[in-house]
Design brief:
The chain is built from 13 helices and 15 strands. It has two domains: 145 residues, Response regulator (Rossmann fold); 186 residues, Rossmann fold (3-Layer(aba) Sandwich), CATH 3.40.50. By secondary structure, it is α/β, with parallel strands linked by helices. A hairpin with a 2-residue loop joins strand 11 and strand 12. It is 35% helix and 19% strand.
Length: 398
């Protein structure tokens, strides 16, 4: 058994503690890589480096991690078997499943999401391929940081006092009419946020539904498409989910089962029709183009956009030339800001944007960026988005 442990944090500190990350993988090379990457981040620490799922289950209470990077295939106890045991011991543990890009592992990753895993990440087949290793490095650190954000304390590591431009360790001086505030209360006081601007919905009748999502997206998408059958039957639905090849194949199958409607990875040149769900295939951007009186799918192998491929912005932007103001776009849970720029263009062309709210998002990056940009006509919990879409596509304009 290969075990490396970091001391457990004290609970009395008023400073922001680093995220405690438990790395569980039977490959000494992968364990070493991830541990070095995590250890080099100022807001993270390697809480443990373990070889099997059994080690993780036995050590979790002593290690007390915030995030676990859990391999799927391991001796003694594999990742999918260890997952429920780990969550039983620590219910709020964030688990990121790691696997190579095979159909079997993609299916297991989807099962893991249904069992409580927060996300998944594909491992490169060889760490000798620099580009693949760099992508893995970037994506993993961003996932750990974004998913761990909800666990982080709200106190910054170098606190800034109100009205100052630099960190300090002393509270403001007391005055006769203002006694000294305890430092801990001062540092943890919530900062008032300006209200989010909401626009009126477009007066144009929507002619297509576009959806963008990332972290937490598969679960959100399956919930959403299962409740908008009336929309799918009459209008085309196009989805970009940040996801690698093979995984999008499995996701399309899940979407078909959830919606009871045809859903598939989009094919370059195919005609877009109502009654179908088109999913951007992993590793390729999906756009739409006008072909005479028809609308067709256009896939391309261009560089990543917003560090993503496929990306949401190319789909959103391309749709304007096809449907002008008749676009209704939805930005669901996900890291980063993909979809915000394309959403701005949709609104400028006369269309509308809906964002998932923070409370129901796994990560409020993408929908938060759209909401804070002031381009949304509604910011809704996931459970309220489908009924709203049904009403809007049925003629409601409010």
């Amino acid at each position: 058994m290969s075990v490396a442990l970091a001391s457990s944090p004290t609970s009395s500190s008023t400073q922001q503690e680093p995220l405690r990350v438990m790395v569980v993988d039977d490959s000494v090379v992968i364990r070493g890589l991830i541990s070095r990457w995590v250890g080099s981040e100022p807001d993270m620490v390697v809480a443990a480096s373990l070889r099997t799922g059994l080690d993780a289950v036995n050590q979790i209470e002593r290690v007390n991690p915030d995030v676990a990077v859990l391999d799927i295939e391991m001796p003694e106890l594999d990742g999918i078997s260890a997952l429920p045991l780990l969550l039983a011991k620590k219910r709020n543990l964030i688990i990121i499943m790691a696997s190579t890009l095979t159909r079997r592992n993609a299916e297991i990753s989807f099962k893991a999401l249904s069992l409580g895993a927060s996300d998944y990440i594909p491992k490169p087949e060889s760490t000798r391929e620099q580009a693949a290793a760099e992508t893995f490095h970037h994506d993993l650190i961003q996932k750990i940081r974004s998913l761990g954000a909800k666990l982080r304390r709200t106190v910054p590591a170098s606190p800034h006092l109100p009205g100052t431009g630099h960190p300090t360790t002393n509270p403001p001086l007391a005055t006769p009419d203002r006694p000294r505030e305890p430092l801990s209360r001062l540092l943890q006081a919530p900062v008032a946020q300006p209200p989010l601007v909401r626009r009126a919905f477009s007066s144009h009748a929507p002619r297509a539904l576009l959806i963008g999502s990332s972290t937490g997206g598969p679960q959100a998408l399956m919930t959403l498409v299962g409740e908008i059958g009336a929309v799918i039957d009459r209008f085309p639905v196009l989805i970009t989910q940040h996801m690698p090849p093979t995984f999008t194949t499995i996701l399309a199958e899940h979407l078909a089962r959830s919606s009871h409607r045809p859903a598939h990875e989009a094919v370059d040149g195919e005609i877009v029709k109502a009654g179908r769900i088109y999913l951007a295939p992993g590793g390729r951007h999906m756009r739409v183009v006008r072909r005479g009186t028809d609308v067709a799918i256009a896939l391309d192998d261009g560089p990543p956009v917003n560090f993503c491929k496929p990306a949401v912005d190319p789909l959103f932007s391309s749709a304007i030339d096809v449907w002008q103001g008749g676009i209704l776009a939805v930005v669901l849970t996900g890291m980063g800001s993909d979809g915000m720029r394309g959403g701005k263009e949709i609104v400028a062309a006369g269309g509308s944007v809906i964002a998932q709210d923070e409370a129901t998002s796994v990560v409020w990056g993408m929908p938060g960026a759209a909401a804070n940009a002031g381009i949304c006509s509604a910011i809704l919990p996931l459970g309220q988005i489908a009924p709203k879409l049904v009403r809007l596509f049925s003629g409601d304009r409010s």
